[in-house]
Design a protein that fits this description.
Length: 277
């Protein structure tokens, strides 16, 4: 390699690192600001310009426990886990059927699933609220789970359908020739090879359920309140308890970070393979 080419390569790499560093700072700054603000007093959060060095306190995190706000974290976790399980249980056989049994009806219903996911939340919250209220299920975890499943299930079906269509049919045909049924082929052949995509769908479902605000805010009031709805309820009419809001927000990010960190290699692999056609 000539000296000029080597210089250009180093310059390009330096520019790339600078751009990535700027983007990293842009992404991490709100997270760092939340974490530090949760360790301040209310007076310290109002000081401008904000001080980098300050006396730390865990008073905001103590309020989460003493005020019973920890129940909201439990509700969010239960809703997200149950939503993952139900979404996968229903979406896997539905997506496999749409991918393997090609009919005009399957093609239309597959697009219908996608159109449901594309519908804005404000467009479906009113009928959902009316149905939930008529069943007397308001302010329950079940009502939020149903609302989340209506959004997550079509999305999971569409992603898994595209992935199943890319799997070699010959593998399944070999299993069928050996005497396996369709269900056995799905459980013993298709699912093990589709695990990266299934985990990716589980992560995306978890992120939506954990961060979703509108359905939880409309359908719950006290017992079934989730973390996003809790943060909104902390906003007062005259003032904001910034340390407490930042502490709740920081605590809400921890489970999501842990979950994504554990399965991150499957996310990249699953979404990449699912996008190749």
């Amino acid at each position: 390699m000539r000296a000029s080419d080597l210089t250009k390569s180093r310059l390009s790499r330096a520019i790339l690192y600078i751009i990535l560093s700027i983007l990293l700072v842009f992404v991490l700054f709100p997270i760092v600001w939340l974490a530090f603000s949760s360790l301040k007093t209310h007076y310290q959060t109002l000081i401008l310009p904000p001080k980098i060095l300050f006396k730390h306190t865990l008073e905001a995190y103590k309020k989460i426990v003493t005020a019973g706000m920890f129940n909201s974290f439990k509700n969010s976790l239960i809703i997200a886990v149950v939503d993952i399980i139900l979404a996968l249980v229903f979406s896997i056989p539905a997506a496999y059927s749409l991918a393997r049994f090609k009919t005009k009806f399957n093609k239309n219903i597959g697009f219908w699933f996608l159109s449901i996911r594309m519908a804005p939340a404000f467009g479906v919250i009113v009928p959902i609220y009316i149905v939930i209220r008529s069943l007397r299920l308001l302010d329950t975890i079940f009502s939020v789970n149903v609302a989340h499943l209506l959004i997550n299930l079509p999305f999971a079906i569409w992603l898994l359908k595209g992935y199943f269509e890319e799997l070699p049919v010959e593998i399944e045909e070999s299993a069928l020739i050996d005497g396996a049924t369709r269900v056995q082929t799905l459980l013993r052949v298709v699912l093990p090879t589709s695990m990266p995509m299934i985990i990716s769908v589980a992560v995306l479902t978890f992120m939506f359920s954990w961060n979703e605000f509108l359905f939880a805010f409309i359908l719950t009031s006290s017992k079934g309140v989730t973390v996003p709805a809790l943060v909104a309820s902390l906003a007062g009419s005259m003032t904001f308890d910034w340390p407490l809001m930042c502490a709740v927000s920081t605590g809400a990010m921890v489970p999501a970070f842990i979950f994504v960190f554990v399965v991150q290699r499957y996310i990249v692999r699953g979404l990449t393979l699912g996008a190749i056609k």
